[in-house]
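The protein record now logged underneath.
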Amino acid sequence: MTSSIISFTLLVLCVLGSVTRGQSPAPSPTMQSKPYGLVIHGGAGVISRETMTPQVENAYRTTLAEALAAGYSVLEHGGASVDATIAAVRVLEDSPLFNAGHGAVMTAEGLCELDAAVMDGNGLRAGAIAGVRHIRNPILLARDVMEKSNHVMLTGEGAEKFAQSLGYDRVANEYFQTERRRLQLEKAKEIDRKVGTPEHVRNEQKSGDEFTFDGIDPMPERKWGTVGAVALDQAGNLAAATSTGGMTNKKFGRVGDSPIIGAGNYADNATCAVSATGHGEYFIRATVAYSISARMAFGRETLGAAAKQAIDTVGTLGGTGGVIAIDRKGNVATPFNTPGMYRGVHLSSGKPLIEIFPSEP
């Protein structure tokens, strides 16, 4: 008994001695904070330094930084990954620079039709909406489908009625429309009217013919501009959120990959969270988002290898685009096969980073 008391006393004196010398005891493994972070994207496509003025570049970087900060703040204060992704995506939906919400591309009928999806890696819960025309922030409705309905996806008029039952304000479709998107629609229709081979159309798209809207955003008419976010929170939960206006001049109620769980959006706490952007038909065919998770789970691949292989598959099929992804350990991947992709990363272990081009300083 006496021996135990002496040992304990010596231990206390050693600890006090280290503190008085200005040294703290080494933290135990349980005291180390878990990694967390957020990754966002604002679309991938024909984005080049040659056509992007300093004003244009600054506009995109500023808005991406605002979205990144909004989402990361949620994580930093102990919030859930789902909340973080939605906070980031809402900023991008409210900006006219991106193809989601206000600023979405227009259909052949001259309207904006919006798609969005949310997935919680904790329990594989998911919600999605497609073809809505009067919901200011589609990502919010996608979340409500996940949390307040027994379904995963609602479309068109049905989704609008569900929103009405929850008290959503109905906004006029004109809210989403911008002059820049009207010009893009006119150009797309002009190409459709031209008589020529598919090769002729491809050459037209590569000709460098671009639009300028008040000096902001010169952009070829076929650029993909979906927005999205993926997050890992301090509790170890993953989430993904994706929102889009689809393709310029789309017809017949076309729906791309963004609201399709496993194609353009996916999250599983056991592996990773993924949000995609690109030519949706190819991402659907290759089930891109889920394939990354599956490669990690069944093939034991790293996040980086799995994400790269998924985009390589899209390229092999003839498609273009990219993904953002984060795994349960805080590793990040942002592969794309286009000239550029608007993206941002902020991990708890570092500073926020905004990138547009393949190689950034």
User: Anything to note?
Assistant: The first helix runs from residue 2 to 20.
